[in-house]
Specification:
Length: 227
């Protein structure tokens, strides 16, 4: 009942407020107008990074790059509605649970929230399947000055299974915001398989080429280019 009321209040609000991107058009898709929606840098494909298949909604290009950065670093959480909508665009597999990409406690304290958890929670509500967080992430150190092999080992060591848990899911979907090399997803996926997951799918908002990650995001990511 409240959900229904909430939805019609949202519809009413949408009717009287313009597109959240251009401030002109009428809201049609997750708070943005038809024209802004069509002009997003769509990818809607499964790509391969670090021998991992990853479903991706968009290229990490304007305006999606700005929107994700504002969402993550400037706490502009109103962007979440559009970001939730993006994650629904690729054809999603049937899974038993959604696993948000974990962030370390340091990052959590610094940022105040885990952006992937917020996205996973919204997706979980939409698909009516649980969010599952069986893996912890240890301190995310800088990858600078490390060799390719050292970087891979560094990332693998960051992901550890949380305290033993009775719950086990066979098919899961990892949710992350931006994929660059895919090494975090690969490392998380390995731990999930050790925990008994038989099929691990991955879904990201956007895929970046290494050079597209700006200095702000580069400081955040542990996925430095593996050259
Ligand atoms: Zn618009």
């Amino acid at each position: 009942m409240f959900k229904l009321l909430g939805r019609s209040a949202q519809q009413l609000f949408d009717y009287f407020t313009p597109c959240s991107m251009c401030d002109i058009g009428m809201k049609r898709h997750f708070g943005v107008c038809q024209s802004c929606w069509q002009q997003l840098p769509w990818l809607k494909q499964t790509i391969e990074r670090s021998q991992q298949q990853i479903m991706v909604a968009c290229h990490y290009q304007y305006p999606i790059d700005r929107i994700i950065q504002q969402f993550k670093y400037e706490q502009k959480l109103h962007h979440q509605r559009l970001l939730n909508g993006l994650l629904l665009q690729p054809r999603l597999p049937k899974v038993h649970a959604i696993v948000p990409m974990p962030i370390s406690t340091d990052r959590l304290v610094e940022r105040g929230f885990n952006q992937s958890l917020l996205l996973a929670q919204a997706l979980s509500e939409h698909l009516n399947i649980p969010v599952w967080q069986p893996v912890q992430r240890l301190a995310q150190h800088s990858q600078k000055g490390l060799s390719r092999l050292e970087r891979l080992e560094n990332i693998e060591q960051q992901f550890v299974a949380a305290a033993p848990n009775q719950i086990r899911y066979r098919k899961v979907l990892i949710v992350d915001d931006v994929v660059t090399t895919g090494s975090s997803i690969t490392a998380l996926s390995q731990v999930l398989q050790q925990l008994g997951c038989q099929q691990v799918y991955s879904l990201c908002l956007a895929a970046a080429q290494h050079q597209e990650i700006n200095s702000n995001a580069a400081a955040d990511t542990t996925e430095s280019p593996l050259l």
